[in-house]
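Person: At home tonight, work slowly through the protein below, taking as long as you need, and write a paragraph about the fold.
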Amino acid sequence: MLRSWAATPLSRASLRYVSSTSARTKSNLARASTLRKQDPLLTGAQSRPSSALVANKPFSTSLQRYATHSGNPFDKIDKKHEEVIEHEKIVPHPEEVSASSTVHQIFSEKGVEEEQKDEDMLAGVKADLQTIKATFALDEVPREALVIGMAGVLPYLATSLSTVYLAFDINHASETGSGFLFSPRVAEQILHIIEPLQIGYGAVILSFLGAIHWGLEWAKYGGVHGYPRYAYGVIAPAVAWPTILLPIEYALITQFCAFTFLYFADARAVVRGWAPHWYSTYRFVLTFIVGASIVASLIGRGQIADQINKLPSPADRVKALRDLQLGAMETEEREKRARIAAEDEEGGDEEEDEGGDDEEEE
């Protein structure tokens, strides 16, 4: 009953809408028939409807076919089921009434609660870990380059970890009076040995990274670019080697900036096609390890800055050597003058002795 009652106004409305557009539809069909008769190329298409015409037919034609077709399976009514529903008593369910109860769900029944899916609270963390894993993936890097590159950062990492441990040992000795493995004096001496090793090795690595671009230019990888590519190999050692003359803190900071700048230059070279596509990821991993090592060394030294004597820089050594040479020259000059003065005194005494002898003879 309900279904038939709802279908009746729908059919009447559709027929009223169709009647307003039927004249236009008939005129379109008549015009298409006239064109097919005039054009001999369209005679073969008289037996089938035009695809362009079918595509442009208004929605009213389909609606008219649906509303007037007597054999539509959707209009079949189950009279037995309707009779059963007619004699059923409507039972109210106030608990189901809500602000959204009048809106029927599309993919679920009304009044049936959908199963709540458990939300993964660590989904964001897992996504970040996947991003990090994809960033550090070095599957496309040649194995030889990967092994040698990772081995190349081990000395830098070892000197950095040694600096951190020695700083911890010196701090522990200042608080308790003794270190774990070394005394404060021995730890300070070892630290002064490690400092130039780390700075010198960093200068070598920077020079090597710049020289790679010379090799790519000679191999004509990505074409011949001349001075712009050779500049990479010149700027890197020009910045790296003067750091061995700086104090340890300034040298580490300068090398950190140099490694970072050279990484961005290498990434730019990859974008330009001057280097292999995997080279930027490879350089990022190596630069990350070296940069972390430099930061760890700076933090370790910052913890004991007021507890150790700073190792003199090469400039300080040159100044001390110059002062030592000046002091030696002054000492030598004083000794020379004292020797000359002594000789003069000895000569005066001899003359006095000779004058006394002559007087006695007279």
Notes: The radius of gyration is 48 Å.
